[in-house]
Amino acid sequence: MTERVLILGAGYAGSVVANVLAREFRNRIAKEELEIIILDRNDTNINQGGFTFIPFELYTPEDITRPRKKLISPRVKSFYGRNGEITAVDLHNKEVTVKSDKKYSYDYLVIAMGCRADIDAVPGLADDLNTFYTSIEDAFKVRDLVKNINGGRIVVSVASMPVPCPGAPVKFTFMLESYLRNFRKNRDDVQLTLAWPMEPIGPPEFNKLVTGQLKEKNIEVIRTFQLASVDAAKKELTSKNGDTINYDLLITVPPHKAPQVLIDSGLADDKGWLSADKATLQYRGSAGNFDDVYVLGDLGPADILKTGIGAHYQAIAVSQNLINDIRGNRIKTPYEGETGCPIVTELESPSTQGRGYIATWKYGVPPEPFTTTKMGWFLYRMYYHIHWDISVKGLF
Ligand SMILES: Cc1cc2nc3c(=O)[nH]c(=O)nc-3n(C[C@H](O)[C@H](O)[C@H](O)COP(=O)(O)OP(=O)(O)OC[C@H]3O[C@@H](n4cnc5c(N)ncnc54)[C@H](O)[C@@H]3O)c2cc1C
Fold it and tell me: Where are its TM segments located (predicted)?
């Protein structure tokens, strides 16, 4: 009988798992003892990390997208569009339904469908929504806005946590400051404010670096500002404890939550995320405990940082656990919380060297003291090209 691994979502994490399993089990797949199926609603993979750079024209849509068929091993059976768009997930009956009404059963299930912006969670936000967080098109709209900034108060507001890559809004703010100072040459005409929903910005050493840089660059930071509503007519933000901020231009990172289909399937917790064992990543949520169901990437527990770096390490751990499950050796390979947050504090310009750093940490091991460097900038810029041929293919 053919065993089946069913992977929901062919984004970063799902693609890595599919590729690692396809390499490991090429003989079993050829003998039809094992089948790997991956589903996604569309056939194009987007590296969302590139959204932060589009407003400054540092990557093009071609740089940050690839057809999934170039990324996923041909040993994997891929279904996109109506046969890949998931409409219901039933863990008790081990059955997944897609838009065409086709149903897929499985022996092992990997849920890696990412998360989505929840604009309606903030009253009034839709009336003045400028964000680089949601799509290439929206990032280009932000590009058009920043190109035309001539003065006034710009507020970058992170509505609430968790969001994917919580460092990205900080990175964006530093890049915007550098862009106005070095390219537009109008930095002195602009008041730049970062409204942040928590007290610290990342772990202690990350917070220290960022806090120093915000001060040095004269960027105002308003902490613990959890966005409650936006009044587009008055150009005013109100926080959950009633504080207000006025703006001329608002750039927002909206609240996020797991895909609605997973919430509707009864798999999410009351905060809107999928619970899992933080080490094995096996599903431990409102639908029960399921050892044959793995949860990884952005839709996972609220207290696991949502980053591409984290999704990658989770995918490597889950792949190894699936290899162990299928071989029946009962070994568990834990995810140890490996994650990271790339930061940029300066753009490369005729008068400045780009500066960046990729801070990494794991459960119980916070980042070491660090500073941004020219080499960090180059490595981070290069990573966007390496991503497709090394990381997504699961070769590292
Ligand atoms: C602006 C921004 C900047 C970022 N910068 C960085 C960075 O610098 N470094 C970093 O490490 N991380 C960064 N990230 C985070 C990183 O992109 C995510 O953590 C990573 O993509 C998560 O991978 P995933 O596989 O969980 O989800 P995704 O890569 O989002 O994949 C989810 C897949 O599921 C599919 N899907 C969803 N719903 C359905 C459905 N109903 N049916 C079928 N398919 C479905 C989607 O189409 C998608 O292909 C950034 C994110 C953003 C938004």
Answer: none
Please indicate whether residue 50, judged by its CB atom, sits closer than 6 Å to ligand 1. no
- Residue 273 is predicted with a pLDDT of 97
Share of the chain above pLDDT 70, in %: 100
Q: Which CATH number fits domain 118-256: 3.40.830.10, 3.40.190.10, 3.10.20.520, 3.50.50.60?
A: 3.50.50.60
CA distance 235 to 228: 14
- The residue contributing the CA closest to ligand 1 atom 27 is 114
For the 3-115+258-327 domain, the top CATH level (class) is alpha beta
Q: What is the residue whose two structure tokens read 């400054």? A: 56
Mean pLDDT of the chain: 97
Q: Which atom of ligand 1 is nearest to the CA of 299?
A: 26
Q: With a 6 A CB cut-off, is 10 part of the ligand 1 pocket? A: yes
